[in-house]
């Protein structure tokens, strides 16, 4: 690992533990995530500490994925950490995509405000499953875009759009006659209406997750991201590293939850000895250490694949499944070790459990990734039979 990444990771950890964690009980943290006022207050402090958007360098270049991993894991030590350091979804993934696909003008207009931490963004892809729209299957997308002079006109519905309420930059996916397309839009826009913000199990992302109606949204042609019909390709450019970034951040939170549970088990006495000395408790904490190490190794392996220049779709699917399921086990054991305290809001253990439970679904449920990997097994088998 590079010295620059180790140095910034240490700096981030100090900032999270000393500055961010005391904000976890702030009343501006609500069921739909922290308020934008709180986000900006934390980002001002991160800017002063030199840890704002730490994975993107001053010249616009990025850390490698392996370097990004140790930085993002540290930001994840608090649910507020990624927001403070500007490494949170969907912004982190949107910044990555814009950096890879955006034109110079698009980067200046849309990317710069995200990298600086001045604005939040939203990624409009998922559609209501009840309308047979693009839930976990983006090929079923019903949102349309049609060229009208020098503008594209977009109509459709979206759901579970994270951070739409309060976002300043949007990336909207729609289908043209050529196929899937992506568009950059300024928010808010009267043609993009928030129908409601859903009540969900997680509460770490500002703006929550919204249902959206898009009614005759007019987007200048030069705000199309890339080329018409190439949207699915761009989605994979974004989603492969974004899945891995989720793994990094939530691993950090589960590491902290395990710290809290371990401290509790060593201090709490029951039946004549500390809880940790009871095998039923001590073994759970030992299993947590094993799962944490396996998560670290899986993240590092997948990051290495992405750094090699591969799109890493299969690898990121494997990492997303393995890490999200392991983190669920870790969070669950932490709750169990702490008993009644584990389900209370007195520590972040309870929130870690809720956030990680949601993580098993977003950016592709476990079952969708397994299905995708099973298709690869079949393709490889057929190729071997004819090879």
Automatic annotation (TrEMBL):
Database matches in InterPro entries: Acyl-CoA_dehydrogenase (IPR050741), Acyl-CoA_Oxase/DH_mid-dom (IPR006091), Acyl-CoA_Oxase/DH_mid-dom_sf (IPR046373), AcylCo_DH-like_C (IPR036250), AcylCo_DH/oxidase_C (IPR009075), AcylCoA_DH/ox_N (IPR013786), AcylCoA_DH/ox_N_sf (IPR037069), AcylCoA_DH/oxidase_NM_dom_sf (IPR009100)
Q: Which Gene3D superfamilies match?
A: Acyl-CoA dehydrogenase/oxidase, N-terminal domain (1.10.540.10), Butyryl-CoA Dehydrogenase, subunit A, domain 2 (2.40.110.10), Butyryl-CoA Dehydrogenase, subunit A, domain 3 (1.20.140.10)
Q: Does the keyword Cell inner membrane apply?
A: no
Q: Which cofactor does it need?
A: FAD
The record's keywords, sorted A to Z, are:
FAD, Flavoprotein, Oxidoreductase
* Domain (Acyl-CoA dehydrogenase/oxidase N-terminal) ranges: 2-117
Query: Does the record's keyword annotation contain Oxidoreductase?
Result: yes
Instruction: Read off the SUPFAM superfamilies from this record.
Output: Acyl-CoA dehydrogenase C-terminal domain-like, Acyl-CoA dehydrogenase NM domain-like
Ranges for the Acyl-CoA oxidase/dehydrogenase middle domain?
122-199
Provide the Acyl-CoA dehydrogenase/oxidase C-terminal domain boundaries.
229-376
Q: Which PANTHER family match?
A: ACYL-COA DEHYDROGENASE FAMILY MEMBER 11 (PTHR48083:SF13), MEDIUM-CHAIN SPECIFIC ACYL-COA DEHYDROGENASE, MITOCHONDRIAL-RELATED (PTHR48083)
User: What protein family does this chain belong to?
Assistant: Belongs to the acyl-CoA dehydrogenase family.
| Assembly notes | Homodimer.
- Name the chain's protein: Acyl-CoA dehydrogenase
């Amino acid at each position: 690992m590079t010295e620059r990444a180790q140095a910034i990771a240490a700096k981030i950890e100090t900032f999270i533990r000393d500055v961010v964690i005391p904000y976890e009980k702030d009343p501006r943290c609500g069921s739909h995530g922290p308020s934008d006022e709180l986000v900006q207050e934390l980002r001002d402090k991160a800017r002063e500490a030199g840890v704002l958007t730490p994975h993107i360098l001053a010249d616009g270049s990025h850390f490698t994925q392996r370097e990004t991993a140790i930085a993002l894991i540290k930001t994840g030590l608090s649910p507020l950490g990624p927001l403070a350091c500007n490494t949170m979804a969907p912004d982190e993934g949107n910044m990555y995509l814009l950096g890879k696909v955006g034109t110079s003008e698009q980067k200046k207009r849309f990317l710069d405000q995200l990298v600086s931490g001045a604005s939040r963004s939203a990624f409009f892809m998922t559609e209501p499953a009840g309308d047979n729209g693009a839930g976990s299957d983006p090929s079923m997308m019903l949102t349309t875009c049609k060229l009208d002079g020098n503008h594209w006109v977009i109509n459709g519905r979206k759901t579970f759009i994270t951070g739409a309420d309060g976002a300043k930059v949007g990336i909207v996916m729609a289908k043209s006659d050529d196929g899937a397309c992506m568009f950059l839009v300024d928010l808010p826009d009267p043609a993009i209406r928030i129908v409601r913000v859903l009540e969900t199990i997680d509460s770490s992302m500002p703006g929550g997750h919204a249902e959206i109606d898009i009614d005759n949204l007019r987007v200048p042609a030069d705000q199309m991201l890339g080329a018409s019909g190439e949207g699915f390709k761009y989605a994979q450019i974004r989603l492969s590293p974004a899945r891995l970034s989720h793994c990094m951040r939530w691993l950090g939170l589960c590491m902290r939850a395990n710290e809290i549970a371990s401290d509790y088990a060593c201090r709490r006495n029951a039946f004549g000895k500390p809880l940790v000395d009871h095998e039923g408790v001590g073994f759970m904490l030992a299993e947590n250490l094993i799962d944490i190490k396996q998560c670290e190794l899986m993240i590092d392996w997948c990051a290495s694949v992405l750094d090699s220049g591969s799109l890493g779709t299969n690898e990121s699917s494997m990492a997303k499944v393995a890490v999200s399921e392991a983190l669920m086990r870790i969070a669950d054991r932490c709750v169990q070790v702490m008993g009644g305290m584990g389900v209370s809001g007195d520590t972040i253990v309870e929130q870690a459990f809720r956030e990680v439970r949601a993580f098993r679904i977003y950016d592709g449920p476990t079952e969708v990734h397994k299905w995708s990997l099973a298709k690869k097994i079949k393709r490889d088998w057929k190729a071997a039979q004819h090879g």
